[in-house]
Amino acid sequence: MAEKNTKPEKKTEGAKTQKDTGKKEKKTKSKRKSVLTGCAYIQASYNNTIISLTEPNGDVISWASAGASGFKGTRKSTPYAAQVAAEKAVEKAKVFGLQKVHVYVKGVGSGREQSIRGLVASGLDIISINDVTPIPHNGCRKKKARRV
Question: How far apart are CA 23 and CA 16, in angstroms?
């Protein structure tokens, strides 16, 4: 049976490690970024509405959805739920100093317009509104015709 080569541990008497001193290392609080302009992405599906507020480079500052705002079932897909979700997302983002947004709307749900109104009602200035709903360029191949 072969023995493992183990190096003898060197003991240094004068040097104390972090554990020996008993003091905890202080964590410095990172300053919150001040974001004046950003982007608001609204995804409005038939079942839910999700609002994400981001920095210009795409890092998410805050988000909210109709489901996370306390609505369940068919009430998630209502325009009122979309408005409440937008107001919640803006409330979280106000801490970062967000004031102006470019809005990108995606989807065909009932909360499209109302979520934009929720952003305005919460005090955000809207710079532009773009519809980025994906549209198929002829899409998938159709099913073959039924012969009866």
Answer: 12
State the pTM of this model. Answer: 0.73
In CATH terms, the fold of domain 37-131 is Nucleotidyltransferase; domain 5 (3.30.420)
**In 3D, which of 107, 116, 45 has the Cα closest to residue 85?**
116
Type and span of the H or E element at 81: helix 79-93
Give CA torsion, residues 67, 68, 72, 76, to 10 deg.
Answer: -30
Strand ranges in the chain using DSSP code E only, listed in sequence order: 37-44, 49-54, 60-65, 100-106, 125-131
Q: 112-121 and 79-93 are packed helices; what angle lies between their axes, rounded to 10 degrees?
A: 40
Question: Quick count: other Cβ atoms within 10 Å of Cβ 126?
Answer: 13
What CA–CA distance (Å, rounded) separates 101 from 93? 11
Query: Domain extents for the chain?
Result: 37-131
Longest CA–CA separation in the chain, Å: 94
Contact between 79 and 47 under an 8 Å Cβ cutoff? The reply is no
Write the pLDDT tens digit of every residue in 90-143.
Answer: 999 999 999 999 999 999 999 899 999 999 999 999 999 999 999 989 889 999
